[in-house]
């Protein structure tokens, strides 16, 4: 470096040796992105505006949000209300914000739903709507809130929903159980997990026990999709982490989606995304916020992830594939 500034005293530049670092490519600020899994209809107007301000072009808002239902065990009307409420509000969300918002509709297995057959009967009618872009979120859940849902029943409700997805050419967005072992949730003598409006003392005993619960649930999801005739490339496995990546990317053709908006709970950061892309390539990797009104989450984490992936060595085209082209492909958009 041989830069001299007309400053009265020498600046850092006087002491630098070697090449100047490459400047950041300005197009990094304009990479479009699609959030394939969130619950943004449960956020505030301001937060939905943040999606648009940080470059979000499209999102799929999962109307399957069992946490907000007032009664337990959950009745079919409770779930139906969540679907209808999201559907009812969608036009105004679209008029208010510039991204393309669509819905995911499905029976979440995080709390047992009584008489779920009633929902399976009407699910195809919802899936026929233009507003519905995915069946979700669904997925085998290891332990439920308030009322346990036996595994055999969960498998049935999963398989049937995936059949509906296959019939309508829709992807299924499937949560995988969090691996909370690796996360250091700060100890509190009083109250619940900080940042989570869910009474964990009401979690029921697990209905799925395995050494690696995330892996066992994910394998079941993949098996059930196959039984339902839903192609692997229509299956988005959410809440990815580095531990599940080898199974999914070496043994299936499914997509793997990393939740980046609440690392304090899932322990997942842009570094995990970068490592997996470095090892396996960007073809089947997605990023999602899963942001929801029930927990502390950060809408801007998506845009920050774009910047972080660049800093960690991914080029702009690779990043664009992960955050935009891949979700577009999944959604057939
Ligand atoms: Zn979710």
From TrEMBL:
* Sequence ranges of Basic and acidic residues compositional bias: 1-12
Domain of life of the native organism: Archaea
GO molecular function list: hydrolase activity, acting on ester bonds
UniProt protein name: Metal-dependent hydrolase
Query: Annotated region Disordered: where?
Result: 1-20
PANTHER family, from UniProt?
HYDROLASE TATD
Q: Which organism is it from?
A: Halogeometricum pallidum JCM 14848
């Amino acid at each position: 470096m041989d830069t001299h500034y007309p400053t009265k005293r020498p600046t850092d530049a006087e002491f630098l040796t070697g090449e100047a670092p490459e400047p950041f490519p300005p197009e990094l600020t304009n990479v479009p992105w699609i959030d394939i899994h969130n619950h943004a209809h449960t956020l505030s107007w301001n937060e939905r505006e943040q999606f648009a301000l940080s470059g979000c072009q499209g999102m799929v808002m999962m109307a399957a949000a069992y946490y907000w239902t007032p009664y337990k065990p959950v009745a079919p009307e409770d779930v139906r209300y969540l679907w209808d409420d999201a559907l009812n509000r969608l036009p105004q969300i679209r008029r208010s914000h510039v991204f393309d918002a669509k819905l995911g509709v499905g029976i979440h297995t995080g709390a047992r739903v009584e008489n779920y057959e009633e929902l399976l009967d009407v699910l195809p009618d919802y899936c026929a709507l233009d507003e519905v872009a995915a069946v979700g979120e669904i997925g085998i859940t290891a332990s439920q809130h308030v009322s346990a849902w036996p595994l055999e029943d969960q498998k049935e409700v999963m398989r049937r929903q995936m059949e509906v997805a296959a019939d309508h050419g829709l992807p299924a967005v499937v949560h995988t159980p969090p691996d909370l072992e690796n996360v250091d949730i700060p100890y509190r003598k009083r109250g619940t997990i900080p940042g989570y409006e869910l009474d964990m003392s009401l979690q029921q005993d697990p209905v799925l026990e395995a050494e690696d619960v995330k892996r066992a649930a994910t394998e079941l999801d993949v098996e059930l999709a196959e039984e339902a005739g839903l192609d692997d490339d229509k299956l988005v496995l959410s809440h990815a982490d580095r531990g599940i990546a080898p199974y999914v990317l070496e043994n299936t053709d499914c997509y793997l989606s990393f939740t980046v908006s609440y690392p304090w709970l899932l322990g997942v950061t842009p570094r995990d995304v970068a490592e997996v892309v470095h090892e396996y390539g960007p073809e089947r990797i997605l990023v999602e916020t899963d942001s929801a009104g029930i927990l502390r989450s950060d809408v801007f984490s998506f845009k920050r992830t774009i910047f972080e992936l660049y800093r960690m060595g991914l080029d702009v085209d690779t990043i664009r594939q992960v955050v935009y082209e891949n979700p577009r492909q999944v959604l057939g958009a």
